[in-house]
Design goal:
172 residues, alpha+beta, Alpha-D-Glucose-1,6-Bisphosphate, Chain A, domain 4, eight-stranded antiparallel sheet, 40% strand
């Protein structure tokens, strides 16, 4: 009986830590990652916006499906290798320097923003990718912040883009 009591105390303590820790974290977040490529802004823009090019460097994609425009912006559905569909709307389009995508996974109500900023750099191009979003569940906030890591998707995307250009992923 004593062992089960101690186990329940640990379970409750872990659950409370996850919940209280998550409540103390802000709901809104933004993550910024940067990739340096020895390419032109136009080449990077093409890789980000041409559906055939995207299929080559996004190794997590199974399919891209064009949808009707949303709010007057191009939209499409990405089907990832984990089976999750993500509806993507191109909310801002300023070639070849700025792209803002609203990404809404089909099982989540709120979109995240992925903002691509392309700037000339001494090495060629500095591509900054900023993800902005909101996590309402406090336990999920805690897990993402401290256990699961929050930069993984962005780093995978940037590493895939670097591989597309046959360059090492210089990400910071």
């Amino acid at each position: 009986m004593r062992r089960s009591s101690v186990m329940w105390i640990w379970v409750v303590a872990v659950a409370l830590t996850l919940f209280v820790g998550g409540v103390l974290l802000p709901e809104r977040y933004d993550i910024t990652r940067r990739l340096v490529l020895s390419r032109t802004p136009e080449a990077v823009w093409f890789a980000l916006t041409d559906s055939a090019a995207v299929r080559r460097w996004r190794t997590d994609l199974i399919d891209l499906q064009r949808l009707e425009d949303r709010n007057g912006h191009p939209a499409w559905r990405e089907i990832r290798d984990d089976g999750v569909g993500v509806v993507v709307e191109s909310a801002a389009w300023d070639p070849p320097v700025h792209l803002l995508l609203l990404r809404t996974p089909e099982r989540q109500p709120a979109p995240t923003e992925w903002e691509y900023i392309i700037e000339r750099a001494p090495e060629g191009v500095a591509l900054t990718l900023v993800e902005r979003g909101r996590i309402t569940n406090p336990v999920r906030r805690f897990v993402v912040q401290f256990l699961a890591g929050s930069r993984g998707d962005l780093d995978r995307q940037l590493a895939g883009l670097a591989a597309y250009f046959e360059e090492p992923p210089r990400i910071d």
